[in-house]
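Usage

Read records sequentially. Each one opens with the input sequence:
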Amino acid sequence: MVPFTKLTGIAAPLPMINVDTDMIIPKQFLKTIKRTGLGKNLFDEMRYTQDGQEVPDFVLNQPKYRQAQILIAGENFGCGSSREHAPWALADFGIRCVIAPSFADIFHNNCFKNGILPIRLPAETVDALLAEAQNAQDPTFTVDLEQNLILRPTGNEPISFKIDPHNRECLLEGLDDIGLTMQKADKIKAFVARQQSQAPWLYSAGAGA
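and closes with the structure output:
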């Protein structure tokens, strides 16, 4: 997983509440188990017409936001089913940070496991950021996880945020669940070697048959 330390990128405003995971990546795209290739179908039903043409008014189709890496949204973002394809689609598009007043718990946890930083802020603060992203000629924000700060395109006072220390450390180090496990590789190997010596029958041919 790519470490998240400091991100400077375009912020796209999506002032909608209750954006569920089926809106983020509709069910017909859940057949794959790959984490790549889903970005083109992110927000598919809002982003395209039924015949596959872009909807000009949708935020990610607008020239200013096509390369967005930050998404600013409304309350309860990521609600609905627990599909991990939702953060996969966001990450594959290029979104590495989502800012909202609240998130569905499973989606929130899945973001950390996929290198995305979900930031909870008070609704009035999110409203101010939405306005800046909508009105700034260059809506480039910097999200500094090392300092826990959001730097704004207007030059207004930076906004601080809080993240669970464990999740913060995992993002800074680029560690998902497998990466965390592999940090214990030496202890795992030592355990296996000890168990093979003490209970060799567990490793013999046909064991467990």
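Summary fields computed downstream for this record:
- Helices lie at 21-24, 44-47, 85-93, 105-113, 123-135, 165-173, 177-182, 185-198.
- The chain is about 35% helix and 15% strand.
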